Amino acid sequence: GIQVEQSPPDLILQEGANSTLRCNFSDSVNNLQWFHQNPWGQLINLFYIPSGTKQNGRLSATTVATERYSLLYISSSQTTDSGVYFCAVDILTGGGNKLTFGTGTQLKVEL
Amino acid sequence: DTEVTQTPKHLVMGMTNKKSLKCEQHMGHRAMYWYKQKAKKPPELMFVYSYEKLSINESVPSRFSPECPNSSLLNLHLHALQPEDSALYLCASSQEISAGQGFWEEQYFGPGTRLTVT
Asked: Cα–Cα distance between B30 and A101 in angstroms, integer?
């Protein structure tokens, strides 16, 4: 099956710092989502981004589907950004989009 | 409203018990999903329902039995579970972009049920 690797696996930032998270995938995909999983387990949708660049406040994402990677940028990080960031790729099926999640990046933002 | 709700939030059950997890969405989505997430691991797909029919079963053991009574509800019936089945169970839903084309929009997740099997 498709492999989805994220880097770095762990990241510690000082509040106010910027960071880039990477997602590499091994095959063509129909779509890609970025999620933030908070400490209580809730997966929060960040971006739905098959290609191109999107921005939402301090976050932005870029997907280059032809080169099989996506990047998530976090600027001016805050302690509330802590948690696990997952990318998930969508393989086309007739019966619903089958998401395969990446390995995740555990982010901790410190004061 | 992009809300998916799940009940209960927490569940502790013995290996001989029968219990059910419930999931509900009112976004008019026609695909619903169950995922299992072990600690410090990514979520893994278990089942997909499309238009209230089971469309994907990821070789899940029969002690997990999904049910989709209508387009808004998804249940997961649990029976004779093992301690290794303890995990966070997540429900999600998505909408088809163009009817019958098999292209689905982004998935939205519920808060999960944290299951402990003793």
From this structure: 22
DSSP characters over A52-68: EEEEETTEEEEEEGGGT
Report whether A75 contacts A28 (CB < 8 A).
no
pLDDT, one tens digit per residue, over B15-31 is 999 999 999 999 999 99
> Which one of B37, B103, B107 has the shortest CB-CB distance to A99?
B107
CA atoms within 13 Å, Cβ hemisphere of B25: 26
Q: Do A93 and B102 touch (CB under 8 A)?
A: yes
Smallest CA–CA distance, residue A49 to chain B, in Å, is 9
Contacts of A80 (CB under 8 A, 6+ apart): A109
Confidence of residue A91 (pLDDT cuts 50, 70, 90): confident
Give B112→chain A minimum CA distance, Å.
7
DSSP B41: S
